[in-house]
Design goal:
Arc Repressor Mutant, subunit A, Tetracycline Repressor, domain 2, 2 domains
């Protein structure tokens, strides 16, 4: 029941985002649109910020739990298509509300998936310096991925969603295979000298 109530408020917020700027949407607007009470709103959320954050986390994290087992490309497609489906809402979260909110949620989500995808790189490390470098790769890719998605959502980069999926997936695949070739060559050279 509690989840259904939160979902109702979330859906009302997304509907309202199609009509006006998110920083202009009030608790009263949400309550009226959702046919709920202010008491119910404040029972579930402290303020509008908490509602916006809950919607983003629910849409991007909770609903995506099942897709975490697929390939990186499938996972990326699911994420990009989800962002595109509610593009007006996410655009307004970035522009009108709090640009760091969506960025922070995407960073957590993407970093976790990159760590799961690139775990094999960590298995190849033999020194702390190599492990630090792999962590740098993951961190750099996370920030770049999030920045690229933000630019795409805002329309700065006018790629089609399939192109976004292909570019991001290929980048990760190329970095992974390049790193593997590099470490394999280093291992072969070490064996040759022994």
């Amino acid at each position: 029941m509690e989840f259904d109530t939160k979902l109702k408020f979330g859906n009302a917020l997304k509907e309202m985002s199609k009509e006006k700027s998110l920083n202009k949407v009030t608790v009263n607007n949400i309550v009226e649109r959702g046919n709920m009470t202010r008491q119910a709103f404040y029972y579930h959320f402290h303020d509008m910020y908490e509602l916006v954050e809950w919607v983003c986390r629910y849409e991007l994290v909770q609903k995506k739990k099942d897709s975490e087992r697929g390939t990186f490309e499938e996972w990326t497609r699911d994420l990009v298509f989800t962002l595109d489906k509610e593009r007006i809402f996410y655009k307004k979260v970035i522009r009108d509300f709090d640009e760091r909110l969506l960025e922070h949620i995407l960073e957590e989500l993407i970093q976790r998936k990159l760590e799961d995808t690139l775990w094999v790189l960590k298995m190849k490390t033999k020194t702390q310096k190599e492990e630090d470098y792999v962590n740098f790769i993951i961190h750099f890719l996370t920030i770049s991925y999030v920045n690229y998605l933000n630019r795409w959502l805002l329309g700065t980069d006018s790629c089609e969603k399939e192109e976004v999926v292909e570019q991001l997936s290929r980048l990760v695949e190329d970095i992974q295979s390049g790193y593997m070739r590099r470490t394999d060559k280093r291992w072969i050279r070490t064996v040759e000298f022994v």
